[in-house]
Write a structure and sequence with these properties.
It is built from 16 helices and 16 strands. By secondary structure, the protein is α/β, with parallel strands linked by helices. Bound molecules: pyridoxal-5'-phosphate (PLP). The site of pyridoxal-5'-phosphate has 15 residues, from helix 6.
Length: 470
C-alpha cells in the first residue's frame, strides 16, 4: 500500500472509527496495524509484513484465510444472490446447512434458528428456554443459572448471564438477575480449609481437580434443590470458559451438570460459540463427555471464520412448544435482517466439506500434542517464575502470568500490563496474539501448518523468557 494512503487511513481511523473492546484514547496515541490481506494461517499488513494469525482473527478462523474452496463457494453463491430474507421465504444453502448441522450436533437437536453473531445465538437460546416454559404452563421458570466468569457475548441478555464487574458496571441497570454458581476452576479456587497444592499446571493435580469439581457441582445441586422451579435453564460453556481466561474445567464436570439438569427437570443450554467446530479436538466440546444439550449455540467457526453467521439448535420438543393456532401467539417472534444470509451459509457448507476432506479433527488432536510439547518448557519454575499456570484443550491454550509466590486465587494487579506488553513484543517477531488480561491466549487457525505452530509457540515462550517482569 502506498505510504501516503497508509497515513491517510490511520488519520481517518483515529477520526472516525470506534473500535470494540478498545481503550480509544490510547488507541489514538498508537500507530495501528492495518491488515491488507490474508494467506493461509497468516495476515499481511499494509507494508507487506507477514504475521501468524495466532488467535485466528478472534477465535473464528478454521481453515486459514483465502481458502480456495470457501472463496469459490461464496463466489458461486454471489452469482445467484447475496441476500434474501428468511422471514416467510427459504433458500437452498440455509436448508442444506440446517440438515448438516442437525446431523453433526450431539443428541436430538433437530431444529436450527439462524442469526448473525454468537451473542444473538445466545439471546435466542434464552428466549427459546423461557418461551418453552411459558408455553408449557410453567411461566415461573424464567431465570437462568450461569457459571461465574462466563462470557456469552455483549447484548443485554448474554451480558446478564456472563456478568463481569469491570466490563458491565455502568450497565448494571440494563442486565436481568441471574443465579450464578461457582466455576470449577482449579487454578483460581482454594480448596478449604487449608490447601497447600502447588497450583502451577493445576489441571494435572487429580485430587485437587476432583475436589474443585465436587465443590462446584454441590453448589449447583444445592441451588437447584431450592430453585429448580424458577429456573429456565443452566447455561454453560462446555469444557472451556473462553473469555474468562481459558478456564479449563476438570473432566466430567459437563456430564455431571447435564445429569443435574435432567434430575432437576431444567434445560441445559450449551454455548459452543468458542468451543464448537473442532476447536477442542472434537466437532463439539460436548461430544467429549457424550452430553446432549437441549439448546446449542454456535457462531465463530461456523463459517470457517469467513462471514457473520450464528445458529441456535433446539430439540423438536422445544420447537413444538412454539407451535399452535395463529391466534394462540406461540410463534417465536424473533429475527434479524440478515438471519441465515446465503453467502454465509454457503461459506459454512464449504467449511464443513473441508472438515471431512482434510480430516481436520484428527489433525487438530495431533497439533494439540505438538502445542503441548512446545509449551512444556514453561514448566521450569526457575526459568519461568512468573508463569502461574498453563491450560490447554485442543487448539486453545492460555498461559497465565502471576506474581511468584501468589496464585490465581489471590488475585492479580491489572495495572501490570504484562499480557498486553508480551503480545505487543510478539508482533515484532511476526505473531499477532491478543491477551485476556494476564492470560496469553494461543488459539491459531485449526489448519495452521506445523512449522508455524512451532514458531508461534516457541516465540511466545522465548518472549516470556526475555520479558522484564516486575
Ligand atoms: C465470542 C463468544 C460469544 C459471542 O459471540 P459474538 O459473535 O462475538 O457475539 C458468545 N459465547 C462465547 C462462548 C464466545 O466465546
Amino acid at each position: 500500500m502506498h505510504p501516503a494512503r497508509i497515513n491517510e487511513l490511520v488519520a481517518l481511523d483515529h477520526q472516525h472509527v470506534w473500535h470494540p473492546f478498545t481503550p480509544m484514547r490510547q488507541w489514538r496515541e498508537s500507530n495501528p496495524l492495518i491488515i491488507e490481506s490474508g494467506d493461509g494461517d497468516c495476515l499481511i499488513d499494509a507494508h507487506g509484513n507477514r504475521y501468524i494469525d495466532g488467535v485466528s482473527s478472534i477465535w473464528c478462523n478454521v481453515h486459514g484465510h483465502r481458502v480456495r474452496q470457501i472463496d469459490q463457494a461464496i463466489r458461486d453463491q454471489l452469482d445467484r444472490i447475496a441476500h434474501t430474507t428468511m422471514l416467510g421465504l427459504t433458500h437452498e444453502p440455509a436448508v442444506d446447512l440446517a440438515r448438516r448441522l442437525c446431523n453433526l450436533a450431539p443428541g436430538h437437536l433437530n431444529k436450527v434458528f439462524y442469526s448473525d453473531a454468537g451473542a444473538t445465538a445466545v439471546e435466542i437460546a434464552f428466549k427459546m428456554a423461557v418461551g418453552y416454559w411459558h408455553h408449557t404452563g410453567q411461566p415461573q421458570r424464567n431465570r437462568f443459572i450461569g457459571i461465574r466468569g462466563a462470557y456469552h457475548g455483549d447484548t443485554t441478555g448474554s451480558m446478564s448471564v456472563g456478568y463481569d464487574e469491570t466490563f458491565h458496571r455502568p450497565f448494571k441497570s440494563m442486565v436481568f438477575e441471574t443465579d450464578f454458581v461457582p466455576a470449577p476452576d482449579p487454578f483460581h479456587t482454594h480448596r478449604p480449609p487449608e490447601d497447600t497444592t502447588d497450583r502451577r499446571w493445576a489441571l494435572e493435580h487429580p485430587d485437587h481437580c476432583a475436589a474443585i469439581k465436587d465443590h462446584a457441582l454441590q453448589a449447583l445441586d444445592q441451588h437447584l434443590s431450592k430453585c429448580a422451579d424458577r429456573t429456565a435453564a443452566i447455561v454453560v460453556e462446555p469444557l472451556v470458559q473462553g473469555a474468562a481466561g481459558l478456564i479449563v474445567h476438570p473432566p466430567g464436570y459437563l456430564a455431571d451438570v447435564a445429569d443435574l439438569a435432567r434430575r432437576h427437570h431444567t434445560l441445559l443450554i450449551a454455548d459452543e460459540v468458542a468451543t464448537g467446530f473442532g476447536r477442542t479436538g472434537a466437532m463439539f466440546a460436548a461430544d467429549h463427555e457424550h452430553v446432549a444439550p437441549d439448546i446449542l449455540c454456535l457462531g465463530k467457526g461456523l463459517t470457517g471464520g469467513y462471514l457473520p453467521l450464528a445458529a441456535t439448535l433446539a430439540t423438536d420438543t422445544i420447537e413444538q412448544a412454539f407451535t399452535g393456532e395463529i391466534h394462540e401467539h406461540r410463534t417465536l417472534y424473533h429475527g434479524h435482517t440478515y438471519t441465515g444470509n446465503p453467502l454465509a451459509c454457503a461459506a459454512a457448507l464449504a467449511s464443513l466439506d473441508l472438515f471431512e476432506s482434510t480430516n481436520l479433527i484428527e489433525h487438530v488432536n495431533r497439533k494439540a500434542e505438538l502445542l503441548a510439547q512446545h509449551l512444556n518448557p514453561l514448566r521450569d519454575a526457575s526459568r519461568f517464575p512468573y508463569v502461574g499456570d498453563v491450560r490447554q484443550r485442543g487448539l486453545m491454550a492460555g498461559i497465565e502470568l502471576t506474581i511468584p509466590g501468589t496464585d490465581g486465587a489471590t488475585g492479580f494487579d491489572p495495572s501490570r500490563r504484562w499480557g498486553a506488553d508480551i503480545c505487543r513484543a510478539c508482533r515484532d517477531r511476526g505473531i499477532i496474539i491478543r491477551p485476556l488480561g494476564n492470560v496469553i491466549v494461543l488459539m491459531p487457525p485449526l489448519a495452521i501448518r506445523d512449522e508455524n505452530l512451532i514458531y508461534l509457540t516457541d516465540t511466545v515462550v522465548s518472549v516470556i523468557a526475555d520479558y522484564p517482569f516486575e
